[in-house]
Amino acid sequence: MPKFTKYLLTFCTAYAIFVMIGCREVTPVDNDKPNDIDSTSIKLDSSIVAYWSFDDNTATDNSGNGFNGTFVNSFSLPSTGAKGNGMKFNGINNWIDVGNKNLIESGHTTTITAWVKKSNQGFAAVMTKWDADKSPDGSDWWFGLYDGEIHFTNNDAGCGRYCPDKMSIGLNIKNDEWTMIGVIITDTIIYYIKNGVIRDIDRGNFRFTSTPSHIRFGKQNDSVIGNESWYKGKLDEVRVYNRKLNNAELLKIYSMFETQQETDTVKIDSIQPYESIPDLLARWNFDDGTAIDNTGNGFDGTKVGSFKTSDGIRGKDVEFYSDGSSIDVGDKQLITSGNQMTITAWVYPTTVSGFRAILTKWEANTSQGGLLDWWFGLFDGEIHFTNNAIGCGKYCPDKMSTGLKIPNNKWTMIGVIITNNTVYYIKNGQIIDEDTGDYTFVSTAAKIRFGRQNGIVIGNESWYKGGLDEVCVYNRALDDAEIMKLYTNKQ
């Protein structure tokens, strides 16, 4: 995201996924879209207008563009941030004044991101240029939170109260938990960002008329009139860009801080006990050197060929190191056509070139043209899921992710959420892309296999090479919090 570059995403309660908001449309962000670039070479200072890291315990604009802030009333310093130091607002009388400056231009696409650890509900002003005490002439734009939802409004179509058409739905930003929030602002659409991914949108008129009001962190209004929307909590790493950030760039900003070692940030460097997530149908952790289904539901596998065992993402893994290595689970009903399902796996591929089968029920070798139920794996570093209703036996760009770039020789969590007409692609705890189509299938007598397709060798087995660990199948669509839990808990 911005959001998916190929298709319209409709969030629907009927699908029971992600934001639970009825039906809202997320449309691709295409206008002025910068070129996708590999996350290792992203220049996040490109088109940056302002950047407050707060690491030096001041509100200096680290971009050098002069948007320096001044403390009003006392702050408790230093205060631990999402990375380095941050700012702690008491929600009573302290804020930061940046002055009357032209930070956001009406009609020019802008991205704002910030890390928050809030401690209050109601309206909580993160960054505003909004003087309700000077109404109707003192308000440009307002960025912050309302009851855990991201709120952005403007003076051409603004509001001074609860405004459901000016805020996200279903994001549920929690108190006392570091969360990356943000918005991408265009003339007619606002895209709401949570933890590096666009989760929701609103449509309307988002232009504004500039006024002499001041930019402030932590409150609105010049004088105190009783509706200051005081922000209470911590704030860190605020960035403003004068363009849309693309998918990879948003995730790069998020990933800069997701493994920080502070006790109040997300970290995945220690092993915690398995957390129970309902509706687990099968799990293979490979810790005992076998391919037993640890749920007890009977999806036990038999190793075929030679394997190695090494340290996995959690405990031990199973390593497919040569053509001929696979695991046979047999002809069993693991995935049910028409049901929502989730598959996740930790992979350490030694090669991602070409087709690499992770978990399949797909035999292209039979005389009747193939027993083809479903296929989950990789193609050239992208996640690939197909089915026999509209299958393919070759390169299928409409059946795989775009831009995920699963690397060689590195543990990566991958997965899919499967519905009747949409597949959502998961990388490292987040839904990054999606494809639409017919994902129902007719069940056949094909066997479930790890590491290959086909019952006999005919030359297109899609052998997987590398480590595999913690493969899970759920018989429902997991929500975004559950997916992130699997990632942070390495399960």
Topology, element by element:
Blueprint: E1 9-11, E2 24-26, E3 48-52, E4 70-72, E5 79-80, E6 85-90, E7 95-99, E8 110-118, E9 123-130, E10 139-146, E11 149-154, E12 179-185, E13 189-194, E14 197-203, E15 215-217, E16 232-241, H1 247-255, E17 280-284, E18 302-304, E19 307-308, E20 318-320, E21 326-330, E22 341-349, E23 355-363, E24 371-379, E25 382-387, E26 412-418, E27 422-427, E28 430-436, E29 448-450, E30 466-474, H2 480-488
Antiparallel strand pairs: 1-2, 3-16, 4-7, 5-6, 6-16, 7-15, 8-12, 8-16, 9-10, 9-15, 10-11, 12-13, 13-14, 17-30, 18-21, 19-20, 20-30, 21-29, 22-26, 22-30, 23-24, 23-29, 24-25, 26-27, 27-28
Question: Could you give a short description of this structure?
Answer:
By secondary structure, the protein is mainly β. The protein has two domains: 29-255, Jelly Rolls, CATH 2.60.120.200; 280-488, Jelly Rolls, CATH 2.60.120.200. It has helices at residues 247-255, 480-488; strands at 9-11, 24-26, 48-52, 70-72, 79-80, 85-90, 95-99, 110-118, 123-130, 139-146, 149-154, 179-185, 189-194, 197-203, 215-217, 232-241, 280-284, 302-304, 307-308, 318-320, 326-330, 341-349, 355-363, 371-379, 382-387, 412-418, 422-427, 430-436, 448-450, 466-474.
Attribute tags:
single chain; 491 residues; mainly beta; Jelly Rolls; 2 domains; eight-stranded antiparallel beta sheet; 4% helix; disordered N terminus
Write up what this structure looks like:
The chain starts with 8 loop residues before the first strand and ends with a helix. It is elongated. The chain is mainly beta and 491 residues long. The chain contains two helices and 30 strands. The N terminus is likely disordered. Strand 9 and strand 10 form a beta hairpin.
